[in-house]
């Protein structure tokens, strides 16, 4: 793990078009400085409310009521911690996670990690592709298979956004997130959940581990919440701020970047909780305990709630989530490819390559199995993400624990203890799911 010094010097920053492009007012007050640092956290938060989250939250809420809210809460707390560590190592080292893996691991380790990161990004893109296509079908009646193909065109949205600058990109993402939050706020009011049951749902239940179906969906929620590509993305995009390049400046940048990501992920938790609460309040309480398909959820909302408003807002929020997640998946793909391989593609080309890889299984499943197949594919994509998590989280924790390199910017002991505990929990749950699958229990 000791790279030659020239390897570090030869590696340019990932996302060079936005690197240190946002000025930080050094003499300003707390709020102005916080505003300067706010943005990267919301780019990361998008991945915590993408269409893959919808599939797992709908399945969990309809089947088990509010029970899996505790999984969403624990997953979000883990995500807040891990993303704070991402911001720390990105600022402290000036490197992103992909670059650190390439520079500090031997090639037989680094290249498999790159491949697994690409698999995770394709799984993420698969969920976004299907979710966006479903939203287009619900809102405009576009057949699912044509919607799947139309999503390849969002590469041009990425190009336009990146040309506008990172602050414009962050502002649009934040606006979409607030619209999504507003849609679900109205849905929760219309679904009228029992708030005592909701609060009890945040208390962990033993059945989550002992019941194989609950565990499978819980793993999907975990994979849909703590997403591998977000760990790579955050370490790179946090470097878009031009903080003072000394120890005091970096400490201040770490503090503000942590506040940014914590606030953004708290908002993402509210959105994820709202999806699950809505599913539990509308479907589980009415006896519809097997609603895993987004289309079925949409169709049931109107008759169960006695109006079309909730269903329409549901579809609008889904479309916004799909478009939002498209942006961050592309940025993550650039970070992973540039960091591991030192190979650059234009954002449009990178998007088209990733999307074409994801389109193939989506088109096949949509053609042969229709909506039910896409629902299963959505949940499976999130479980795949969960299986990839250790291969991003463990390197992250190794770098965050390297006090010899981080020096005065090293993470406090409590963060490292909780971070390693999170990594151990992720590995243990993955082994449990694999064991159940192999033994057929």
UniProtKB/TrEMBL annotation:
Keywords: Cell membrane, Ion transport, Membrane, Symport, Transmembrane, Transmembrane helix, Transport. The chain crosses the membrane at residues 30-49, 69-91, 111-134, 140-161, 168-190, 215-233, 263-284, 304-331, 352-371, 377-399, 411-431. It is a multi-pass membrane protein. GO terms for molecular function: cadmium ion transmembrane transporter activity; manganese ion transmembrane transporter activity; metal ion binding; symporter activity. It is found in: Cell membrane; Membrane. Pfam families: Nramp. Its main location: membrane. Coiled coil: none annotated. The keyword Ion transport applies. One of its GO terms (cellular component) is plasma membrane. One of its GO terms (biological process) is iron ion transmembrane transport. H(+)-stimulated, divalent metal cation uptake system. Belongs to the NRAMP family. This is Divalent metal cation transporter MntH. It comes from Neoroseomonas oryzicola. The lineage of its organism: Bacteria, Pseudomonadati, Pseudomonadota, Alphaproteobacteria, Acetobacterales.
